Amino acid sequence: MAKETFHNLSNEKKERILSAAKQEFEQHPLQHATVKAIIETANISRGSFYQYFDDLEDCYFTTIRHYTVNMHQVFQQLYQRHQHNLKKTLKEYGDVIKEEFYSQNLRDLYRSYYLSWTLKGTDNPMEDIEIELERVRFISTIIHSVIERSFIENWSKDTFSQIYTMHAKWLIEGVSESLRKKGR
Fold it and tell me: Sign of the C-alpha dihedral, residues 52, 56, 62, 68?
């Protein structure tokens, strides 16, 4: 998380720095982004950058938190709101994803984030997890995969909606049940 020095800046300066970082992270995944590009766009010195952030990764996650929504958290909140009704949750979650990920001012940032995302380094250890939480993680992984493919394959909003709906149906009914209904 950004250092206290960053939080003490004027809102205008913070926004200028985050906007420059957003621009860099939209164009390059974290492993290819540079501090140099951010400081040049933001018109700040390298020394100032390191007064605000520990490193490029700190800047990246600060930028992600500032501009985006934690979609896994959204799913869990919807799941709770719909009293663990998977069908209602998945329907509303698909609508939230469509609106959030197809927002033109954030699409490239989400693309960079999702295409560089891995399970390594998450804070969620697998041991001693309740079955319900594990089920939510399983569903989140499936949905994450659909989102990731939408960026890799450059789907339209309609294509995303069709494929998301198909995957949600499989999660609710089961893949074999859906195939049986179609006579396969």
Answer: positive
**Is the four-CA dihedral 86, 89, 95, 96 of positive or negative sign?**
negative
Domains of the chain and CATH, by start: 4-67 (1.10.10.60), 71-183 (1.10.357.10)
Which tokens hold the place of 147?
């989102």
- Burial of 123 per CB tally in 10 Å (0-12, 13-18, 19+): exposed
For the full predicted model, state whether its pTM sits above 0.70: no
Phi then psi for residue 149, to 5 deg, are: -60, -35
End-to-end alpha-carbon separation of the chain, Å?
A: 51
Q: How far apart are CA 161 and CA 157, in angstroms?
A: 6
Determine whether 102 is exposed, middle or buried from the number of CB atoms within 10 Å of its CB (0-12, 13-18, 19+): middle
Residues of the chain above pLDDT 70, percent = 85
Work out the mean pLDDT of the chain and round it to a whole number.
86
> How confident is the model at residue 179, as a pLDDT?
56
CB contact set of 119 (below 8 Å; sequence gap of 6+): none
